[in-house]
Specification:
Order of helices and strands: HHHHEEEEEEEEE
Strand order of the largest sheet: 2-1-9-8-7-6-5-4-3
Structural class: alpha+beta
Number of strands: 9
Largest sheet: 9 strands, antiparallel
Radius of gyration: 17 Å
Length: 194
């Protein structure tokens, strides 16, 4: 089976069929006041990732090595950004003010008193975004690591994303179906100068 860019997007759409229902509260229609309240407490991971991704893609191609159930292919994306490209990168904001007391948060500081690590961990197992870790150096974001999980009657879906500013990302998706089948996908993506 040849892996194509279109087949990857179709697979991502299928993987995400249940995610929008659970993650709708992450990116739902919040008032400006609610967004400001949530932003005061949470680092908006998806906003940062999507902004950096779009900036990188202005003058970089994207090379993706995609492995689905141990079958790999390499795709180069040279054209303009499409909504499908950032589908999975736009799912990790905690901008729901009702979640403020639903996460344990911790910040560590470096020797100069600037934050160098934000950590958010969901208290309840019902929340889709389980963990977010933001690593900084001299006030600039280096790496964002996120983990989300969805459990439903038909499947269990575990998704992790490691995004490195200006370099690329690793996305790992494991979907265990009700009938015992497991779908594993790993996307290793790197920005390449045009």
């Amino acid at each position: 089976m040849k892996i194509t860019q279109t087949s990857i997007y179709r697979l991502l759409e299928n993987l995400c069929l249940g995610l929008p229902l659970i993650l709708a509260s992450c990116t739902g229609n919040l008032s400006e006041t609610e967004k400001k309240l949530a932003s005061k407490y949470f680092f908006q991971a998806s906003d940062f990732i999507v902004k950096d991704y779009k900036n990188q893609r202005k003058d970089h191609d994207l090379m993706k090595i995609i492995t689905i159930n141990n079958q790999s292919d390499t795709i180069f994306i040279r054209d303009s950004i499409t909504p499908d490209e950032i589908l999975m990168l736009n799912k990790f904001n905690l901008n729901n003010p009702h979640w403020i007391h639903e996460y344990d948060t911790d910040t560590t500081y470096g020797v100069y008193g600037e934050p160098d690590h934000y950590h958010y961990r969901a208290i309840s197992e019902k929340l889709p975004v389980r963990n977010i870790d933001v690593y900084l150096s001299q006030g600039k974001v280096n790496t964002i690591k996120t983990v989300s999980q969805q459990n439903s009657l038909i499947n269990k879906h575990h998704l992790s994303l490691n995004y490195t500013t200006g370099i690329g990302y690793d996305l790992v998706s494991v979907q265990k179906m009700w009938n015992g089948d497991t779908l594993r996908m790993h996307v290793h993506a790197l920005f390449r100068k045009k």
